[in-house]
Hints:
It is built from 7 helices and no strands.
Amino acid sequence: MGFFDDIKAKIFGAPVAASVSGQAVTPTPGATSSPTASPEVAVQQQAAVDAGMAAANKVIADAIAQKEAAAAAQSQVDVAAVLDEAVAKSGQKLNWKTSIVDLMKALDMDSSLTARKELADELGYTGDKSDSATMNIWLHKQVLAKLAANGGKVPETLLA
């Protein structure tokens, strides 16, 4: 997981761990009965398979619903409120609205120049990384824009 993924996870919360395909489980016809099984045994075996498939399909449906709920919740995250709360909890005077360093500090992340250079690489910065002031301004704008693009509510004044 990269620096931006860490920022996103701290603001939006942890992502849903399991990936679900959305496909129902269907039994293979005739897979339950052996050629020598009596019709009663075959019916019982098929009933057991059907019950198992129904249970598996319910698990899949529940996982899909949970994933969709998590995505909807993520789209409702007020980034400013989360960061304001993080600043309050930090006990420091941080201005996350203008400083990538303060934004990272508010999230209790490594805000060192090395970390910021790694974040810049991750986000595709092509400028001179030795000009940290210019890089920091670019990083701040990119992080906020990417948070907004991922469903976060970011004040328009910070995206300009």
